[in-house]
Amino acid sequence: MSNESIMPKVKEFVGQYLNTDTIEPDLDLFASGMVNSLFAMQLVLFVEKEYGLKVENEDLDIENFKSLDAIHGFIERKLEVTA
């Protein structure tokens, strides 16, 4: 899987939840009040299923999931470790 394909998939998933296709990559989704803890769990399940990754307890840090950029970086790092 190429790193270029990560952001469009993440943006599509988040956009479907927020019912929009215009999300700034650096927008803090949680601080902005756009998402909640239920969404966070759905996001973790999406990452695990879509990329075949195991999100460990130590990975459940808001810094890994707070924005599209953060999610993208997290997935890239996890994919590098499993490669």
UniProtKB/TrEMBL annotation:
This is Carrier domain-containing protein. Residues 1-79 form the Carrier domain. Coiled coil: none annotated. It comes from Desulfamplus magnetovallimortis.
